[in-house]
Amino acid sequence: MVHRVLLHLICGVLACLSVSLVKAEDPYRYYTWTVTYGTITPLGVPQQVILINGQFPGPRLDVVTNDNIILNLINKLDQPFLLTWNGIKQRKNSWQDGVLGTNCPIPPNSNYTYKFQTKDQIGTFMYFPSTLMHRAAGGFGGLNIYARPRIPVPYPDPAGDFTLLIGDWYKINHKTLHQSLDLGSHLPFPDAVLINGQIHSSFSGDQGKTYMFRISNVGLLISFNFRIQGHKMKLVEVEGSHTVQNFYDSLDVHVGQSVAVLVTLDQPPKDYYIVASTRFSRRVLTTTAVLHYDKSHNPVSGPLPAGPTYQIHWSMKQARTFRWNLTANAARPNPQGSFHYGKITPSRTIVLANSAPLINGKQRYAVNRVSYINADTPLKLADYFNIPGIFSLNSIESLPTDGPAFLATSVMAASLHEFIEIVFQNNEKTMQSWHVDGYDFWVIGYGRGEWAPANRKSYNLVDALTRHTAQVYPNSWTTILVSLDNQGMWNLRSAMWERQYLGQQFYLRVWTPDHSLYNEYDIPSNALICGKAKGRHT
Ligand SMILES: *[C@@H]1O[C@H](CO)[C@@H](O)[C@H](O)[C@H]1NC(C)=O
Ligand SMILES: *[C@@H]1O[C@H](CO)[C@@H](O)[C@H](O)[C@H]1NC(C)=O
How far, in Å, are 128, 225, 439 from residue 197 at the CA level? Predict the structure, then answer.
């Protein structure tokens, strides 16, 4: 606390000069992060990874709702680099989203200072590189937003708070991975699953006390199931939603998702296995960590707790039990349930079908037949400077159509304050995980086969939770409702990085003709300029 106040005093003046868009009364937090290569040996062979300030995974960003983050990112890699803040809503501020449609990548030996506010959110999030396949080499970290002092959270303060970044991992260098994708191949099957960059992590606590485990899937491809030997997990938060607090023996976490559970150390003092094992994958990769009771002298023993053997049905059923606690508040004092999303009639329905076409003989991925390719100029800059020929609105249909897939820089137009229904239709045999930048959304239904309007009867229109990443099961659909209250150029993408990299993404341009700082902030004065915007001034 003292250290925060001090920072605020030292930096307050500076900040007022340079940041006019963030509210002065909210605290400022300053960071300088340097991105370098380093060598670690998580799987017995030394390999090149991406470090932030010398750390792998990167530093944990622990902030409070409404904090102003001023983060200078210095790129010492040999390739352009960007971080994106997964699930941070960036209200009115897609300028800071850190994806290639909104930001020029930071060139080697150069820097960019992100300025954003963690507005109206409490919960478990993460950041990771959005450029090339950098995410396969690290550069990711936890981003936890804590409640402001006067905002209650619906659970007692835990005795400790653990962040677990879990994901599939390759020994292969990230450059080799993106080069092989460029040549038209698939990613190979991963070599392992790491927990916080290791295969031997350990978490300790006192018997009788309760700890929070914040679990995120930072992997590239594969869902995992998470469980702790002999312990039940009480689900309390999912990507900023406070949930009905059910107990679970194990939880499925899909690529790009985060959940927070409370675990009471209510067993005899010894060490217990923590297990993450892949789901819906050709082979099952399993990694363990240790839950250590402080008074324990007994190492882990016994068989690993078994994961679910049923696949889709089990997982879909579990997903439907993740619900909003309607009387609990989130980042605001009023209860989450006071927003009656189920009573609003959507203005339209968008159906997004993923596919895995070959285009020019190369493996690509597409949404409604369009396989996204990055423009040389960020779409946000093209929009701001009125540079023609970078993208066109409606370059992607809002319903699936028949015909061959093609490459394009696809942008879908939407009006500010529309309330829309989006159906993710997965006619492939693999899991999907979809993410929308700038928003959270209600996940109101999961079902098998081809979605039809009659499926609306099965929607949860009462206590579905909001989140930023939704899974879609093989040959199934998932429906979300989104309130488009955040103007900007927002990336809608597969959270699975091979698919994202090879085209399963597009941008949603949420816009209104009224030019107003009330709806959207202006271009930041330090915005990097590249592509056809070169030579223009902010
Ligand atoms: C790079 O860092 C310097 C301070 O070290 C800062 O003044 C400058 O604004 C940063 N550049 C960008 C584009 O943010
Ligand atoms: C919902 O939240 C309220 C308010 O914090 C709490 O008292 C209640 O126990 C919670 N209910 C469930 C089912 O989690």
Answer: 14, 17, 29
CB-CB neighbours of 416 under 10 Å: 16
Query: What percent of the chain stands above pLDDT 70?
Result: 96
CB 95 within 8 A of CB 384: no
Ligand 1 and 48: CB distance under 6 A:
no
Determine phi and psi for 134, rounding to 5 degrees. Answer: -55, -35
Q: Which ligand approaches the C-alpha of residue 72 most closely?
A: 1
Ligand nearest to the CA of 246: 2
Cα radius of gyration rounded to whole Å, the chain:
22
Domain spans of the chain? 336-533
Q: What are phi and psi of 473, to 5 degrees?
A: -75, 160
DSSP H or E run through 499 = helix 497-501
**Ligand 2 center–CA 262 separation, angstroms:** 14
Taking only the tens place, the pLDDT of each residue in 328-341 is 999 988 999 999 99
Residue in 111, 112, 114, 538 to alter for ligand 1 test, most ligand atoms within 8 A of Cβ = 111
The tokens describing 206, both together, are 């006192």
Q: Which residues contact 285 (CB under 8 A, 6 or more apart)?
A: 168, 190, 192, 193, 222, 277, 278
The neighbouring-strand residues paired with 123 are: 145
Tell the residue nearest (CA) to atom 9 of ligand 2.
Answer: 154
336-533, what's its fold?
A: Immunoglobulin-like (2.60.40)
Atom of ligand 1 nearest to the CA of 110: 1
> Across the strands, what pairs with 471?
433
Of ligand 2's listed atoms, the one at least distance from the Cα of 335 is: 4
| Residue 72 alpha carbon to ligand 1 centre in Å | 7
Round to whole Å and give the CA distance between 457 and 316: 17
Whether the Cβ atoms of residue 326 and residue 154 lie closer than 8 Å to each other: no
Beta bridge partners of 112: 73
- For the chain, the helix, strand and coil percentages under 3-state DSSP, each to the nearest 5: 15, 40, 45
Question: In whole angstroms, what is the distance from residue 324 CA to residue 146 CA?
Answer: 19
Secondary structure in 3-state letters for 139-203: CCEEEEEECCCCCCCCCCCCCEEEEEEEEEECCCCHHHHHHHHHCCCCCCCCCEEEECCECCCEE
Report the nearest atom of ligand 1 relative to the CA of 528.
13
Interatomic CA distance for residues 511 and 391, integer angstroms: 15
Residue with tokens 């001034």: 537
Residues 6+ apart with CB under 8 A from 403: 369
Protein residue whose Cα sits closest to atom 12 of ligand 1: 112
The pLDDT assigned to 25 comes to: 83
Q: What are the tokens at 522? A: 């202006």
In this model, does residue 18 exceed pLDDT 50? no
Express each pLDDT in 141-192 by its tens digit: 999 999 998 899 999 999 999 999 999 999 999 999 999 999 999 999 999 9
pLDDT in tens, 210-249: 999 999 999 999 999 999 999 999 999 999 999 999 999 9
Q: Which ligand is nearest to the CA of 17?
A: 1
